[in-house]
Write a structure and sequence with these properties.
three-stranded antiparallel sheet, mainly alpha, single chain, two-stranded antiparallel sheet
């Protein structure tokens, strides 16, 4: 067994023991449960029953002490605070280029999964990203690779085909040289949805809403990113949004125009605002409903064009056959 696999197995055993202690199992009960684990069967075969039992008892005693010293509410709040800090750091950096909004949206799926797992280290798969963002899994895999290059996430384990990969939230090197209490880069704006928890129901639903699918009829990842940044109580100019997100100003203008036509964003004297949070999902649902007929028209147009080309090519073939005769 490799050292990395052994470390992963020990962490798994520790987590299993801590969960049993958290719901009230005693040291003896946890010890008996751990002795049925394959890792302790291996120890028993190599070192004997006494050694395996002693190690299981030590692990069970550690779990009971850990739970007593780290109450669940306090521990969960520290994990959530850490995830929020990572997220604020990501918002402090620009996400330029055509793939920048896609990378940031995929990263939000990582923050959401970390919130669900109640840990900054968790198992994740690109198919899960597709489920939580409506981004195709191949695109999500490419975005994950770029996020690793930017050191926003770290790969810490691999469970084999179809079993997912273990990731850990991270941040660029400048963050680790900072006080870790605030982002190393100044935040131009405070995002509207960024003021909510990464696991908030509205944040989760907006992240995976089909209105933000890529394509001519959808708002795309840039539309999601601007919806994430826009606030309903404080306007932001196009230049401010471009500076905060890293998206090109011209692209910001085009996406804002599409959001305005869908009544998601509104232009006022001081800049742009978004519909209130309570109205956001109904407006997105209406935009997606209006998108259906447009896709049907596009599909019908493609079919009609294909039929026209088929007829034209058939007429040419008939003419060539008559000329040859």
């Amino acid at each position: 067994m490799s050292a990395r696999r052994r470390d992963d197995e020990l962490r798994e055993i520790g987590g299993y023991a801590a969960k049993m202690a958290d719901v009230g199992f005693s040291v003896g009960q946890i010890e008996e449960a751990l002795l049925r684990h394959s890792a302790f069967h291996e120890v028993q075969g190599r070192r004997g029953t006494a050694t395996a039992r002693r190690r299981a008892r030590d692990k069970a005693a550690w779990a009971v002490r850990f739970v007593a010293e780290h109450p669940r509410d306090e521990w969960c709040s520290r994990v959530l605070a850490s995830i929020v800090t990572y997220r604020e750091t990501a918002d402090a950096y620009p996400w330029p280029g055509r793939t920048g909004p896609t990378d940031r949206r995929v990263l939000e799926a990582f923050y959401l999964s970390a919130t669900f797992a109640k840990s900054t280290k968790f198992r994740f798969a690109v198919r899960t990203i597709e489920t939580r963002t409506t981004i195709h899994w191949r695109t999500a895999a490419e975005a994950t690779r770029r996020l690793r290059d930017r050191r926003m996430i770290r790969k810490v384990g691999n469970y084999g085909p179809d079993l997912g990969t273990k990731y850990q939230l991270a941040a660029p090197a400048a963050w680790y040289l900072h006080d870790r209490q605030s982002p190393p880069a100044p935040i131009v704006l405070v995002p509207g949805l960024g003021m909510r928890s990464p696991g908030d129901r509205l944040v989760e639903q907006v992240l995976r809403h089909p209105a933000f699918r890529s394509g001519d009829a959808g708002f795309g990842d840039a539309g999601w990113m601007l919806t994430y940044w826009l606030r309903d109580d404080e306007p932001a100019t196009r230049a401010e949004l471009a500076g905060a997100t890293g998206i090109d100003p011209d692209r910001v203008g085009r996406v804002l125009g599409r959001l305005e036509r869908a009544e998601i964003a509104q232009r006022i004297d001081d800049g742009w605002v978004r519909v209130p949070d309570v109205e956001l999902l109904p407006v997105l649902d209406a935009a997606e409903s209006a998108r259906g007929p447009l896709l049907l028209v596009q599909e019908r147009g493609t079919r009609d064009a294909a039929a026209w080309w088929s007829t034209w090519w058939g007429s040419l073939s008939e003419k060539a056959a008559r000329d040859a005769a």
